[in-house]
């Protein structure tokens, strides 16, 4: 087994790269990939850069070039659900693209022919996460995560995404990973810690809590690597 661990921003993967042994850096496709071991488990870590296109590229390379057979995403998200506060963890049971719109042809938001509005993540990995959370006494929320190429800092847009997709959190990469992994038959898992509430305070809160929330997510992902192997 070789586990890909992906984030979007440097802050999201640095706490993970810092704990690897036998580190080997490879530059490929205008990005850097970190191969190494965590407690003897082989992993490949990378941050994609922000947004759906870069995330698609990186997820594909982790699988097709580096031979990863499981993908874990770690990062931060904006909360939609009022139950989610800064630092809280959410795992995606499904991912959708809130900015995908061919409704002019009578299709629902988030849908294109031969695709699906909401792509489910791997049930076994979700169960591992629940066991890890229980063993650490941590609360994990499970719900739909909506992805789009927008930093949402607007209560109206956030509420629309919440009602249209029944989403509890939003970010800019998860659904790309879902499309790549489901297409290639690779089990995947998306974890996010809340950095802001996607409202008018979002950019301010994001800057303040990116590092601390990214670390909360990264620590949990490393515990999952231990639990998987
Ligand atoms: O990778 C992008 C980062 C914001 S853009 C998506 N990430 C963080 C999750 C996220 C998010 N996405 C959409 C957290 N809060 C979000 C929100 N809307 N409200 C970025 C951030 N800093 C510098 C440059 N770009």
Q: Would you write up a description of this structure?
A:
The chain is of the alpha/beta class. It has a single domain, classed as Nucleoside phosphorylase domain (Rossmann fold, 3-Layer(aba) Sandwich), CATH 3.40.50. It contains six helices and ten strands, in the order βαβββαβββαβαβαβα. It has helices at 10-17, 52-64, 123-136, 155-165, 174-184, 202-228; strands at residues 3-7, 21-28, 31-38, 41-47, 70-79, 89-97, 119-120, 140-147, 167-171, 188-196. It has a five-stranded mixed β-barrel, surrounded by six helices. Helix 4 links the parallel strand 8 and strand 9 (167-171). The mean pLDDT is 98. It binds ligand 4EH. Ligand 4EH binds at residues 8-9, 50, 76-78, 151-153, 170-173, 195-196, 198, 202, 206.
């Amino acid at each position: 087994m070789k586990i890909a661990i992906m984030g979007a921003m440097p802050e999201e993967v640095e706490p993970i790269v810092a704990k690897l042994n036998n580190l080997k850096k490879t530059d490929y496709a205008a990005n850097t990939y970190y191969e190494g071991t965590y407690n003897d488990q082989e992993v490949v870590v990378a941050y994609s850069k922000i947004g759906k296109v870069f995330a698609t590229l990186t997820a594909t390379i982790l699988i097709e070039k580096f031979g990863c057979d499981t993908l874990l995403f770690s990062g931060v998200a904006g909360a939609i659900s009022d139950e989610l506060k800064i630092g809280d963890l959410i795992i995606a049971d499904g991912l959708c693209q809130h900015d995908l719109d061919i409704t002019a042809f009578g299709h629902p938001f988030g849908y294109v022919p031969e695709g699906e509005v909401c792509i489910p993540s791997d049930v076994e990995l979700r169960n591992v996460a629940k066991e890890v959370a229980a063993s650490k006494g941590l609360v994990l929320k499970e719900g739909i995560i909506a992805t789009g190429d927008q930093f949402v800092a607007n209560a109206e847009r956030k509420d629309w995404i919440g009602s249209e997709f029944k989403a509890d959190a939003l970010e800019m990469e998860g659904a790309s990973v879902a499309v790549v992994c489901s297409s290639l038959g690779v089990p995947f898992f998306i974890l996010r810690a809340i950095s802001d509430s996607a409202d008018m305070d979002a950019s301010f809160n994001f800057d303040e809590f990116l590092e601390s929330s990214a670390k909360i997510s990264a620590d949990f992902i490393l515990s999952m690597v231990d639990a998987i192997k």
